[in-house]
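Exercise 7.
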Amino acid sequence: MLFAAASLMLLATGLPPLHDLGEGTYLGFQGGLYPGGANEPPPAHQQAALAKAAEIVPRDAAGNPSQDGAIGMIAVGMSNTTHEFGAFERNEDRNRNRNARLVIMDTGFGGQTAAIIASPTASYWTTMMQRLAAMGLTAAQVQVAWLKEADAQPPNDFPGHAMLLRDELESVVNNLHDKFPNLKLCYLSSRIYGGYSAPGTLNPEPQAYESGFSVKWLVEDQIAGDPGLSYGQVAGPVRAPLLLWGPYLWADGTTPRSDGLTWQLSDFEGDHVHPSATGEQKVAALLSSFFARESTAAPWWPARADLGLVALDATKDAHVSAAAPAANFGSAVPLLSQGGASPITAYVGFDASGIARPVALAKLSLRVVDAGGGRVSGVTDTSWGEGTITWSTAPAAGATLVTMPQSSRDGTIAARVTGNLNADADGRLSYAIDFPAASQASYHDREDSDPPRLVLGVACALSADGDGDGRADPCDCAPADPSSFALPREVAGVRWLDTVTIAWDASSAEAGPGTTYDLLSGAIAAVAEFDGDPGDLCAGALAGTQLPDPTPQPAAGDGRYFLIRAVNACGSSRWETSSGGRDRARSSCP
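Solution. The predicted structure, written as C-alpha coordinates, is:
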Protein backbone atom coordinates (compact mmCIF):
# COMPACT_ATOMS: atom_id res chain seq x y z
CA MET A 1 0.00 0.00 0.00
CA LEU A 2 2.88 2.38 0.71
CA PHE A 3 4.20 1.82 -2.83
CA ALA A 4 0.77 2.43 -4.33
CA ALA A 5 0.32 5.63 -2.34
CA ALA A 6 3.77 6.89 -3.34
CA SER A 7 3.17 6.16 -6.99
CA LEU A 8 -0.23 7.82 -7.01
CA MET A 9 1.41 11.06 -5.93
CA LEU A 10 3.12 11.20 -9.33
CA LEU A 11 0.04 11.96 -11.40
CA ALA A 12 2.07 14.51 -13.37
CA THR A 13 5.73 15.45 -13.64
CA GLY A 14 5.26 18.95 -15.03
CA LEU A 15 7.39 18.02 -18.05
CA PRO A 16 6.27 19.15 -21.54
CA PRO A 17 5.77 16.40 -24.14
CA LEU A 18 8.65 16.54 -26.57
CA HIS A 19 6.50 17.52 -29.55
CA ASP A 20 4.85 20.29 -27.51
CA LEU A 21 8.20 21.56 -26.20
CA GLY A 22 9.13 22.69 -29.72
CA GLU A 23 12.00 25.18 -29.76
CA GLY A 24 12.04 25.28 -25.98
CA THR A 25 14.64 23.37 -24.01
CA TYR A 26 14.82 20.69 -21.34
CA LEU A 27 17.98 20.86 -19.22
CA GLY A 28 19.67 22.68 -22.08
CA PHE A 29 18.46 20.37 -24.88
CA GLN A 30 16.00 21.59 -27.50
CA GLY A 31 12.63 19.91 -27.92
CA GLY A 32 10.66 18.94 -30.98
CA LEU A 33 10.88 15.60 -32.72
CA TYR A 34 13.24 16.82 -35.43
CA PRO A 35 16.03 19.41 -35.70
CA GLY A 36 15.29 23.01 -34.84
CA GLY A 37 12.41 22.16 -32.53
CA ALA A 38 10.28 21.04 -35.50
CA ASN A 39 7.82 18.14 -35.47
CA GLU A 40 8.29 17.21 -39.09
CA PRO A 41 11.40 16.13 -40.99
CA PRO A 42 13.50 18.66 -42.88
CA PRO A 43 12.46 18.82 -46.56
CA ALA A 44 15.44 16.84 -47.86
CA HIS A 45 14.89 14.02 -45.36
CA GLN A 46 11.17 14.01 -46.11
CA GLN A 47 11.78 13.74 -49.83
CA ALA A 48 14.27 10.93 -49.29
CA ALA A 49 11.71 9.14 -47.13
CA LEU A 50 9.04 9.49 -49.81
CA ALA A 51 11.47 8.03 -52.35
CA LYS A 52 12.15 5.08 -50.04
CA ALA A 53 8.41 4.63 -49.49
CA ALA A 54 7.89 4.35 -53.25
CA GLU A 55 10.27 1.36 -53.24
CA ILE A 56 8.05 -0.55 -50.81
CA VAL A 57 6.20 -3.00 -53.05
CA PRO A 58 5.10 -6.63 -52.78
CA ARG A 59 8.14 -8.89 -53.12
CA ASP A 60 8.65 -12.60 -53.64
CA ALA A 61 10.69 -14.78 -51.30
CA ALA A 62 13.92 -13.73 -53.01
CA GLY A 63 13.07 -10.05 -52.60
CA ASN A 64 12.17 -9.36 -56.22
CA PRO A 65 9.16 -7.11 -56.89
CA SER A 66 6.14 -9.31 -57.57
CA GLN A 67 2.46 -8.46 -57.77
CA ASP A 68 1.76 -11.73 -55.96
CA GLY A 69 4.31 -11.10 -53.21
CA ALA A 70 4.14 -9.61 -49.73
CA ILE A 71 5.25 -6.56 -47.78
CA GLY A 72 6.50 -7.57 -44.34
CA MET A 73 6.04 -5.12 -41.45
CA ILE A 74 7.67 -6.02 -38.13
CA ALA A 75 7.88 -4.73 -34.57
CA VAL A 76 11.29 -4.54 -32.88
CA GLY A 77 11.65 -4.32 -29.14
CA MET A 78 10.77 -5.34 -25.61
CA SER A 79 7.69 -6.39 -23.64
CA ASN A 80 5.82 -3.09 -23.98
CA THR A 81 6.49 -3.26 -27.71
CA THR A 82 4.94 -6.70 -28.15
CA HIS A 83 1.97 -5.84 -25.91
CA GLU A 84 1.18 -2.68 -27.89
CA PHE A 85 2.02 -3.92 -31.38
CA GLY A 86 0.20 -7.19 -30.70
CA ALA A 87 -3.00 -5.19 -30.11
CA PHE A 88 -2.28 -3.06 -33.20
CA GLU A 89 -1.75 -6.15 -35.36
CA ARG A 90 -5.03 -7.71 -34.22
CA ASN A 91 -6.93 -4.48 -34.91
CA GLU A 92 -5.35 -3.88 -38.30
CA ASP A 93 -5.97 -7.45 -39.42
CA ARG A 94 -9.65 -6.46 -39.42
CA ASN A 95 -9.13 -3.17 -41.22
CA ARG A 96 -10.43 -3.38 -44.78
CA ASN A 97 -8.95 0.03 -45.52
CA ARG A 98 -5.41 -1.36 -45.45
CA ASN A 99 -3.35 -3.22 -48.02
CA ALA A 100 -4.02 -6.97 -47.90
CA ARG A 101 -0.51 -7.66 -49.19
CA LEU A 102 0.93 -6.00 -46.09
CA VAL A 103 1.69 -8.77 -43.58
CA ILE A 104 1.88 -7.24 -40.10
CA MET A 105 3.96 -9.29 -37.66
CA ASP A 106 4.46 -8.74 -33.94
CA THR A 107 8.09 -9.73 -33.46
CA GLY A 108 8.73 -7.99 -30.15
CA PHE A 109 9.70 -10.08 -27.14
CA GLY A 110 9.60 -9.58 -23.39
CA GLY A 111 12.83 -8.73 -21.60
CA GLN A 112 14.71 -7.83 -24.78
CA THR A 113 16.11 -4.41 -23.92
CA ALA A 114 18.11 -2.19 -26.23
CA ALA A 115 21.33 -3.26 -24.51
CA ILE A 116 20.53 -6.90 -25.36
CA ILE A 117 19.41 -6.59 -28.97
CA ALA A 118 22.22 -4.17 -29.80
CA SER A 119 24.23 -7.38 -30.26
CA PRO A 120 23.71 -8.94 -33.71
CA THR A 121 24.06 -12.42 -32.17
CA ALA A 122 21.37 -11.97 -29.50
CA SER A 123 18.90 -14.85 -29.40
CA TYR A 124 16.16 -12.28 -30.02
CA TRP A 125 17.09 -12.14 -33.69
CA THR A 126 16.94 -15.94 -34.05
CA THR A 127 13.46 -16.05 -32.54
CA MET A 128 12.35 -13.18 -34.79
CA MET A 129 13.48 -15.05 -37.90
CA GLN A 130 11.67 -18.18 -36.71
CA ARG A 131 8.46 -16.24 -36.24
CA LEU A 132 8.74 -14.76 -39.72
CA ALA A 133 9.37 -18.21 -41.16
CA ALA A 134 6.27 -19.57 -39.42
CA MET A 135 4.30 -16.92 -41.30
CA GLY A 136 6.02 -17.80 -44.57
CA LEU A 137 7.91 -14.51 -44.78
CA THR A 138 11.57 -14.21 -45.71
CA ALA A 139 14.00 -11.55 -44.55
CA ALA A 140 13.98 -10.16 -48.10
CA GLN A 141 10.26 -9.37 -47.87
CA VAL A 142 10.52 -7.28 -44.69
CA GLN A 143 10.41 -3.61 -45.72
CA VAL A 144 8.93 -1.67 -42.78
CA ALA A 145 9.76 -1.75 -39.06
CA TRP A 146 8.47 -0.09 -35.90
CA LEU A 147 11.20 0.16 -33.27
CA LYS A 148 10.44 0.92 -29.64
CA GLU A 149 13.14 0.18 -27.08
CA ALA A 150 14.41 1.13 -23.63
CA ASP A 151 16.87 -0.11 -21.03
CA ALA A 152 15.96 -1.57 -17.66
CA GLN A 153 16.51 0.61 -14.58
CA PRO A 154 18.37 3.44 -16.33
CA PRO A 155 20.22 5.75 -13.93
CA ASN A 156 18.86 9.22 -13.29
CA ASP A 157 21.87 10.91 -14.92
CA PHE A 158 20.47 12.72 -17.96
CA PRO A 159 21.84 13.11 -20.55
CA GLY A 160 24.05 10.07 -19.79
CA HIS A 161 21.46 7.27 -19.96
CA ALA A 162 19.72 8.87 -22.95
CA MET A 163 22.98 9.07 -24.89
CA LEU A 164 23.74 5.45 -24.09
CA LEU A 165 20.29 4.41 -25.34
CA ARG A 166 20.82 6.46 -28.51
CA ASP A 167 24.06 4.59 -29.20
CA GLU A 168 22.38 1.23 -28.54
CA LEU A 169 19.58 2.17 -30.92
CA GLU A 170 22.18 2.92 -33.57
CA SER A 171 23.50 -0.64 -33.18
CA VAL A 172 19.93 -1.97 -33.39
CA VAL A 173 19.20 -0.21 -36.68
CA ASN A 174 22.57 -1.40 -38.02
CA ASN A 175 21.44 -4.93 -37.16
CA LEU A 176 18.13 -4.36 -38.89
CA HIS A 177 19.88 -3.23 -42.06
CA ASP A 178 22.21 -6.23 -42.03
CA LYS A 179 19.43 -8.76 -41.42
CA PHE A 180 16.74 -7.29 -43.70
CA PRO A 181 18.26 -6.20 -47.03
CA ASN A 182 15.06 -4.56 -48.31
CA LEU A 183 14.12 -2.72 -45.13
CA LYS A 184 13.37 0.80 -46.39
CA LEU A 185 11.80 2.66 -43.48
CA CYS A 186 12.12 2.30 -39.73
CA TYR A 187 9.67 4.31 -37.61
CA LEU A 188 10.66 4.89 -33.99
CA SER A 189 8.73 5.67 -30.82
CA SER A 190 9.89 6.25 -27.28
CA ARG A 191 8.28 5.07 -24.06
CA ILE A 192 4.84 5.78 -22.68
CA TYR A 193 4.49 7.52 -19.30
CA GLY A 194 6.48 6.09 -16.39
CA GLY A 195 5.35 8.29 -13.53
CA TYR A 196 3.28 5.67 -11.74
CA SER A 197 6.47 3.68 -11.09
CA ALA A 198 8.59 4.37 -8.01
CA PRO A 199 12.09 5.83 -8.56
CA GLY A 200 14.69 3.16 -9.19
CA THR A 201 12.24 0.67 -10.70
CA LEU A 202 12.18 -0.69 -14.25
CA ASN A 203 11.63 2.57 -16.13
CA PRO A 204 10.34 5.47 -14.03
CA GLU A 205 10.26 9.21 -14.60
CA PRO A 206 12.03 11.28 -15.71
CA GLN A 207 13.93 8.52 -17.51
CA ALA A 208 10.90 7.38 -19.53
CA TYR A 209 10.39 10.97 -20.73
CA GLU A 210 14.09 11.41 -21.43
CA SER A 211 14.18 8.33 -23.66
CA GLY A 212 12.41 10.51 -26.22
CA PHE A 213 15.65 12.45 -26.58
CA SER A 214 17.43 9.18 -27.43
CA VAL A 215 15.18 8.72 -30.45
CA LYS A 216 15.36 12.41 -31.34
CA TRP A 217 19.15 12.44 -31.28
CA LEU A 218 19.39 9.20 -33.28
CA VAL A 219 17.18 10.55 -36.05
CA GLU A 220 19.01 13.89 -36.00
CA ASP A 221 22.35 12.09 -36.33
CA GLN A 222 21.12 10.42 -39.50
CA ILE A 223 19.82 13.71 -40.87
CA ALA A 224 23.18 15.33 -40.10
CA GLY A 225 24.97 12.70 -42.20
CA ASP A 226 26.43 10.32 -39.59
CA PRO A 227 28.13 7.63 -41.76
CA GLY A 228 27.17 4.98 -39.19
CA LEU A 229 23.52 5.71 -39.99
CA SER A 230 23.83 6.16 -43.76
CA TYR A 231 20.85 5.01 -45.81
CA GLY A 232 22.78 5.95 -48.96
CA GLN A 233 22.72 9.73 -48.65
CA VAL A 234 26.42 10.00 -47.77
CA ALA A 235 29.53 8.39 -49.17
CA GLY A 236 30.43 4.96 -47.87
CA PRO A 237 28.48 1.80 -47.10
CA VAL A 238 24.78 1.82 -46.30
CA ARG A 239 24.36 1.04 -42.59
CA ALA A 240 20.71 1.68 -41.75
CA PRO A 241 17.19 2.07 -43.10
CA LEU A 242 15.86 5.59 -43.31
CA LEU A 243 14.67 6.65 -39.85
CA LEU A 244 11.54 8.60 -39.00
CA TRP A 245 9.53 9.23 -35.90
CA GLY A 246 6.45 7.09 -35.56
CA PRO A 247 3.75 8.23 -33.14
CA TYR A 248 5.04 10.01 -30.06
CA LEU A 249 3.53 8.13 -27.11
CA TRP A 250 4.47 10.08 -23.97
CA ALA A 251 2.03 12.30 -22.11
CA ASP A 252 2.36 13.69 -18.60
CA GLY A 253 0.09 11.29 -16.75
CA THR A 254 -3.38 12.76 -16.25
CA THR A 255 -2.38 16.13 -17.75
CA PRO A 256 -3.69 16.24 -21.34
CA ARG A 257 -1.12 17.06 -23.97
CA SER A 258 -2.03 19.25 -26.97
CA ASP A 259 -3.96 16.47 -28.74
CA GLY A 260 -5.74 15.37 -25.54
CA LEU A 261 -3.75 12.19 -24.81
CA THR A 262 -3.42 11.24 -21.13
CA TRP A 263 -2.10 8.22 -19.26
CA GLN A 264 -4.37 7.14 -16.42
CA LEU A 265 -3.39 4.67 -13.69
CA SER A 266 -5.94 2.25 -15.18
CA ASP A 267 -3.92 2.25 -18.43
CA PHE A 268 -1.21 0.23 -16.67
CA GLU A 269 -0.89 -3.21 -15.16
CA GLY A 270 -0.24 -3.55 -11.45
CA ASP A 271 3.51 -3.12 -11.99
CA HIS A 272 2.80 0.41 -13.33
CA VAL A 273 5.20 -0.26 -16.22
CA HIS A 274 3.39 -2.43 -18.75
CA PRO A 275 0.22 -1.19 -20.41
CA SER A 276 -3.11 -2.72 -19.42
CA ALA A 277 -5.66 -3.61 -22.10
CA THR A 278 -6.77 0.03 -22.26
CA GLY A 279 -3.17 1.21 -22.47
CA GLU A 280 -2.42 -1.26 -25.26
CA GLN A 281 -5.40 0.04 -27.19
CA LYS A 282 -4.26 3.65 -26.74
CA VAL A 283 -0.94 2.87 -28.41
CA ALA A 284 -2.62 0.68 -31.02
CA ALA A 285 -4.95 3.56 -31.90
CA LEU A 286 -2.03 5.98 -32.16
CA LEU A 287 -0.22 3.57 -34.49
CA SER A 288 -3.34 3.04 -36.63
CA SER A 289 -3.98 6.76 -36.94
CA PHE A 290 -0.34 7.41 -37.72
CA PHE A 291 -0.05 4.94 -40.60
CA ALA A 292 -3.43 5.88 -42.03
CA ARG A 293 -2.36 9.56 -42.22
CA GLU A 294 1.40 9.35 -42.74
CA SER A 295 2.53 10.52 -46.18
CA THR A 296 5.43 8.04 -46.28
CA ALA A 297 2.93 5.20 -45.74
CA ALA A 298 0.62 6.34 -48.54
CA PRO A 299 2.34 4.23 -51.26
CA TRP A 300 2.04 0.94 -49.34
CA TRP A 301 -0.56 1.16 -46.54
CA PRO A 302 -3.96 1.77 -48.24
CA ALA A 303 -6.16 -0.99 -49.62
CA ARG A 304 -5.67 -2.04 -53.24
CA ALA A 305 -8.21 -3.03 -55.86
CA ASP A 306 -6.90 -6.55 -56.54
CA LEU A 307 -6.86 -8.15 -53.10
CA GLY A 308 -9.02 -7.61 -50.03
CA LEU A 309 -8.62 -8.38 -46.36
CA VAL A 310 -11.13 -10.68 -44.65
CA ALA A 311 -10.88 -11.70 -40.97
CA LEU A 312 -12.76 -14.79 -39.75
CA ASP A 313 -13.02 -15.36 -36.02
CA ALA A 314 -13.06 -18.95 -34.80
CA THR A 315 -16.53 -20.49 -34.69
CA LYS A 316 -15.39 -22.91 -31.96
CA ASP A 317 -12.36 -23.48 -29.73
CA ALA A 318 -11.51 -25.78 -26.85
CA HIS A 319 -8.61 -27.65 -25.32
CA VAL A 320 -8.46 -31.28 -24.20
CA SER A 321 -6.29 -32.75 -21.45
CA ALA A 322 -4.78 -36.22 -21.10
CA ALA A 323 -4.96 -35.79 -17.32
CA ALA A 324 -8.76 -35.51 -17.54
CA PRO A 325 -9.66 -37.63 -20.60
CA ALA A 326 -13.44 -37.39 -20.14
CA ALA A 327 -13.61 -33.69 -19.25
CA ASN A 328 -14.75 -30.95 -21.62
CA PHE A 329 -12.98 -27.57 -21.42
CA GLY A 330 -14.88 -25.81 -24.17
CA SER A 331 -15.92 -22.93 -21.94
CA ALA A 332 -12.60 -22.63 -20.11
CA VAL A 333 -10.48 -19.49 -20.31
CA PRO A 334 -7.77 -19.33 -21.60
CA LEU A 335 -7.16 -21.77 -24.44
CA LEU A 336 -4.27 -24.03 -23.38
CA SER A 337 -1.61 -26.17 -25.01
CA GLN A 338 0.99 -28.20 -23.10
CA GLY A 339 3.57 -30.90 -23.68
CA GLY A 340 5.26 -33.36 -21.35
CA ALA A 341 3.76 -36.25 -19.39
CA SER A 342 0.28 -34.67 -19.20
CA PRO A 343 -0.26 -33.14 -22.65
CA ILE A 344 -2.96 -30.61 -23.45
CA THR A 345 -3.98 -29.91 -27.06
CA ALA A 346 -5.92 -26.89 -28.29
CA TYR A 347 -8.50 -27.19 -31.07
CA VAL A 348 -9.82 -24.28 -33.12
CA GLY A 349 -12.41 -24.33 -35.89
CA PHE A 350 -13.35 -21.88 -38.67
CA ASP A 351 -15.98 -21.57 -41.38
CA ALA A 352 -14.41 -20.26 -44.58
CA SER A 353 -17.04 -21.85 -46.84
CA GLY A 354 -18.17 -18.45 -48.14
CA ILE A 355 -14.67 -17.35 -49.16
CA ALA A 356 -13.63 -17.47 -52.81
CA ARG A 357 -10.54 -19.58 -53.28
CA PRO A 358 -7.67 -19.82 -53.87
CA VAL A 359 -6.75 -17.17 -51.34
CA ALA A 360 -3.41 -15.40 -51.64
CA LEU A 361 -2.75 -15.59 -47.91
CA ALA A 362 -4.19 -17.33 -44.87
CA LYS A 363 -2.79 -16.30 -41.50
CA LEU A 364 -3.77 -18.10 -38.31
CA SER A 365 -3.52 -15.41 -35.63
CA LEU A 366 -3.63 -15.97 -31.87
CA ARG A 367 -3.30 -13.46 -29.02
CA VAL A 368 -1.00 -14.83 -26.32
CA VAL A 369 -1.93 -14.77 -22.62
CA ASP A 370 1.22 -15.93 -20.78
CA ALA A 371 3.38 -17.73 -23.37
CA GLY A 372 2.91 -18.89 -26.95
CA GLY A 373 4.29 -21.22 -29.57
CA GLY A 374 3.71 -24.77 -30.67
CA ARG A 375 2.95 -27.03 -33.60
CA VAL A 376 -0.08 -26.33 -35.81
CA SER A 377 -1.63 -29.36 -37.48
CA GLY A 378 -4.62 -29.75 -39.72
CA VAL A 379 -7.59 -31.78 -38.47
CA THR A 380 -9.61 -33.56 -41.16
CA ASP A 381 -12.60 -34.42 -38.97
CA THR A 382 -14.25 -31.06 -38.29
CA SER A 383 -17.41 -32.43 -36.66
CA TRP A 384 -16.22 -31.95 -33.06
CA GLY A 385 -18.24 -29.65 -30.85
CA GLU A 386 -16.91 -26.98 -28.51
CA GLY A 387 -19.16 -28.18 -25.68
CA THR A 388 -18.53 -31.90 -26.11
CA ILE A 389 -14.93 -32.50 -27.23
CA THR A 390 -12.72 -34.38 -24.76
CA TRP A 391 -9.32 -36.02 -24.87
CA SER A 392 -11.03 -39.37 -25.46
CA THR A 393 -13.24 -38.12 -28.29
CA ALA A 394 -10.96 -35.55 -29.94
CA PRO A 395 -10.27 -36.15 -33.65
CA ALA A 396 -6.77 -37.08 -34.66
CA ALA A 397 -4.42 -34.32 -35.76
CA GLY A 398 -2.69 -34.64 -39.10
CA ALA A 399 0.88 -33.83 -40.03
CA THR A 400 2.41 -30.64 -38.67
CA LEU A 401 1.73 -27.70 -40.99
CA VAL A 402 3.97 -25.17 -39.27
CA THR A 403 5.80 -24.74 -35.98
CA MET A 404 5.43 -21.44 -34.16
CA PRO A 405 8.46 -20.54 -32.01
CA GLN A 406 8.37 -19.21 -28.48
CA SER A 407 6.57 -15.92 -27.85
CA SER A 408 6.03 -13.88 -24.71
CA ARG A 409 2.89 -12.76 -22.93
CA ASP A 410 0.30 -10.38 -24.34
CA GLY A 411 1.74 -10.43 -27.84
CA THR A 412 0.31 -11.86 -31.06
CA ILE A 413 1.66 -14.92 -32.83
CA ALA A 414 0.84 -16.17 -36.30
CA ALA A 415 1.21 -19.16 -38.63
CA ARG A 416 0.73 -19.39 -42.39
CA VAL A 417 -1.92 -21.98 -43.35
CA THR A 418 -2.58 -20.87 -46.93
CA GLY A 419 -1.97 -24.24 -48.58
CA ASN A 420 -4.15 -26.07 -46.08
CA LEU A 421 -7.09 -23.72 -46.60
CA ASN A 422 -6.86 -23.78 -50.38
CA ALA A 423 -6.72 -27.58 -50.43
CA ASP A 424 -9.76 -28.01 -48.19
CA ALA A 425 -12.89 -29.24 -49.93
CA ASP A 426 -15.67 -27.39 -48.08
CA GLY A 427 -13.93 -24.53 -46.31
CA ARG A 428 -14.76 -25.82 -42.84
CA LEU A 429 -11.41 -25.99 -41.13
CA SER A 430 -9.99 -27.25 -37.87
CA TYR A 431 -6.50 -26.98 -36.43
CA ALA A 432 -4.84 -28.61 -33.46
CA ILE A 433 -2.11 -26.79 -31.55
CA ASP A 434 0.20 -28.81 -29.33
CA PHE A 435 3.24 -27.73 -27.39
CA PRO A 436 6.38 -29.85 -27.63
CA ALA A 437 7.81 -28.76 -24.27
CA ALA A 438 6.56 -29.63 -20.81
CA SER A 439 5.70 -25.99 -20.20
CA GLN A 440 2.40 -24.45 -21.20
CA ALA A 441 1.18 -22.05 -23.88
CA SER A 442 -2.00 -20.06 -23.38
CA TYR A 443 -4.13 -18.07 -25.78
CA HIS A 444 -7.17 -15.84 -25.65
CA ASP A 445 -10.30 -17.53 -26.95
CA ARG A 446 -13.92 -16.96 -27.88
CA GLU A 447 -14.96 -16.82 -24.24
CA ASP A 448 -12.85 -13.72 -23.53
CA SER A 449 -13.75 -11.91 -26.78
CA ASP A 450 -10.32 -12.15 -28.44
CA PRO A 451 -10.67 -15.40 -30.38
CA PRO A 452 -8.28 -17.21 -32.71
CA ARG A 453 -8.62 -15.68 -36.15
CA LEU A 454 -7.97 -16.46 -39.79
CA VAL A 455 -6.78 -13.39 -41.71
CA LEU A 456 -7.24 -13.90 -45.44
CA GLY A 457 -6.06 -12.13 -48.57
CA VAL A 458 -8.96 -12.74 -50.97
CA ALA A 459 -8.95 -12.01 -54.70
CA CYS A 460 -11.49 -9.37 -55.68
CA ALA A 461 -11.99 -10.85 -59.13
CA LEU A 462 -13.20 -14.17 -57.67
CA SER A 463 -15.61 -12.73 -55.11
CA ALA A 464 -19.26 -11.66 -55.05
CA ASP A 465 -20.57 -8.10 -54.75
CA GLY A 466 -23.32 -8.37 -52.13
CA ASP A 467 -24.44 -4.73 -52.10
CA GLY A 468 -24.23 -4.23 -55.86
CA ASP A 469 -21.98 -1.20 -55.79
CA GLY A 470 -19.48 -2.59 -58.28
CA ARG A 471 -16.86 -3.57 -55.70
CA ALA A 472 -16.45 -7.20 -54.61
CA ASP A 473 -17.16 -7.75 -50.91
CA PRO A 474 -13.58 -8.52 -49.76
CA CYS A 475 -12.39 -5.35 -51.48
CA ASP A 476 -15.30 -3.21 -50.27
CA CYS A 477 -14.65 -1.47 -46.96
CA ALA A 478 -18.42 -1.24 -46.44
CA PRO A 479 -19.72 -4.47 -48.07
CA ALA A 480 -23.30 -3.96 -46.83
CA ASP A 481 -23.49 -0.28 -47.84
CA PRO A 482 -24.01 0.40 -51.57
CA SER A 483 -23.16 4.08 -51.07
CA SER A 484 -19.53 3.47 -49.99
CA PHE A 485 -16.85 1.09 -51.18
CA ALA A 486 -13.43 2.74 -50.63
CA LEU A 487 -11.72 5.11 -48.22
CA PRO A 488 -11.63 8.51 -49.95
CA ARG A 489 -8.31 9.88 -51.11
CA GLU A 490 -7.29 13.46 -50.45
CA VAL A 491 -9.67 15.88 -52.14
CA ALA A 492 -8.23 17.50 -55.25
CA GLY A 493 -9.00 20.67 -57.16
CA VAL A 494 -9.86 23.02 -54.29
CA ARG A 495 -10.50 26.36 -56.00
CA TRP A 496 -12.61 29.51 -56.12
CA LEU A 497 -15.36 29.55 -58.76
CA ASP A 498 -15.83 33.25 -58.14
CA THR A 499 -15.09 35.70 -55.36
CA VAL A 500 -17.56 34.08 -52.94
CA THR A 501 -17.83 30.38 -53.94
CA ILE A 502 -15.32 27.67 -53.09
CA ALA A 503 -15.39 24.38 -55.03
CA TRP A 504 -13.55 21.06 -55.20
CA ASP A 505 -13.42 17.85 -57.23
CA ALA A 506 -15.86 15.07 -56.35
CA SER A 507 -14.60 11.88 -54.70
CA SER A 508 -17.76 9.83 -55.28
CA ALA A 509 -16.43 7.92 -58.31
CA GLU A 510 -13.48 6.56 -56.35
CA ALA A 511 -15.14 6.16 -52.94
CA GLY A 512 -18.90 5.79 -53.44
CA PRO A 513 -21.96 7.98 -54.05
CA GLY A 514 -22.56 8.43 -50.31
CA THR A 515 -19.41 10.51 -49.90
CA THR A 516 -19.86 13.88 -48.21
CA TYR A 517 -17.39 16.66 -47.44
CA ASP A 518 -16.15 18.70 -44.50
CA LEU A 519 -14.76 22.20 -44.98
CA LEU A 520 -12.26 23.49 -42.42
CA SER A 521 -11.22 27.13 -42.35
CA GLY A 522 -9.12 29.16 -39.97
CA ALA A 523 -7.04 32.28 -39.69
CA ILE A 524 -4.02 32.17 -41.97
CA ALA A 525 -1.82 32.96 -38.98
CA ALA A 526 -2.94 29.65 -37.42
CA VAL A 527 -2.37 27.50 -40.50
CA ALA A 528 0.56 25.77 -38.76
CA GLU A 529 -1.60 24.76 -35.77
CA PHE A 530 -2.01 21.12 -36.73
CA ASP A 531 -3.78 20.21 -33.49
CA GLY A 532 -6.55 22.73 -34.05
CA ASP A 533 -7.18 26.34 -33.14
CA PRO A 534 -10.14 27.85 -31.23
CA GLY A 535 -10.88 30.12 -34.17
CA ASP A 536 -11.29 27.30 -36.70
CA LEU A 537 -14.66 26.97 -38.44
CA CYS A 538 -16.18 23.73 -39.74
CA ALA A 539 -18.95 23.23 -42.29
CA GLY A 540 -19.66 19.51 -42.11
CA ALA A 541 -21.48 16.76 -44.03
CA LEU A 542 -21.74 18.74 -47.26
CA ALA A 543 -23.43 16.78 -50.04
CA GLY A 544 -22.26 18.97 -52.91
CA THR A 545 -18.86 20.02 -54.20
CA GLN A 546 -19.20 23.78 -53.83
CA LEU A 547 -20.21 26.18 -51.09
CA PRO A 548 -20.63 29.93 -50.65
CA ASP A 549 -17.85 31.11 -48.35
CA PRO A 550 -19.27 30.73 -44.78
CA THR A 551 -16.40 32.52 -43.08
CA PRO A 552 -16.17 36.12 -41.87
CA GLN A 553 -14.37 38.66 -44.01
CA PRO A 554 -10.77 38.87 -42.77
CA ALA A 555 -9.35 42.21 -41.75
CA ALA A 556 -7.06 44.02 -44.14
CA GLY A 557 -3.68 42.31 -44.23
CA ASP A 558 -5.10 39.04 -42.81
CA GLY A 559 -6.41 35.97 -44.60
CA ARG A 560 -7.97 32.56 -44.13
CA TYR A 561 -6.99 29.05 -45.18
CA PHE A 562 -9.49 26.46 -46.50
CA LEU A 563 -9.15 22.67 -46.43
CA ILE A 564 -11.60 20.00 -47.64
CA ARG A 565 -11.81 16.35 -46.67
CA ALA A 566 -14.08 13.60 -48.00
CA VAL A 567 -16.03 11.35 -45.64
CA ASN A 568 -18.02 8.16 -46.08
CA ALA A 569 -18.86 4.96 -44.19
CA CYS A 570 -15.27 3.76 -44.60
CA GLY A 571 -13.66 6.81 -42.97
CA SER A 572 -12.27 10.14 -44.07
CA SER A 573 -9.51 11.37 -46.32
CA ARG A 574 -6.53 13.39 -45.18
CA TRP A 575 -6.97 17.12 -44.99
CA GLU A 576 -3.65 17.74 -46.73
CA THR A 577 -0.28 16.30 -47.72
CA SER A 578 1.65 19.56 -47.71
CA SER A 579 3.47 21.06 -44.73
CA GLY A 580 6.04 18.30 -44.46
CA GLY A 581 3.50 15.53 -44.97
CA ARG A 582 1.65 16.15 -41.69
CA ASP A 583 -2.10 16.04 -41.48
CA ARG A 584 -4.44 17.65 -38.98
CA ALA A 585 -4.49 15.65 -35.76
CA ARG A 586 -7.83 17.18 -34.82
CA SER A 587 -9.93 20.17 -35.75
CA SER A 588 -13.25 21.81 -35.09
CA CYS A 589 -14.80 19.24 -37.44
CA PRO A 590 -16.08 16.18 -35.55
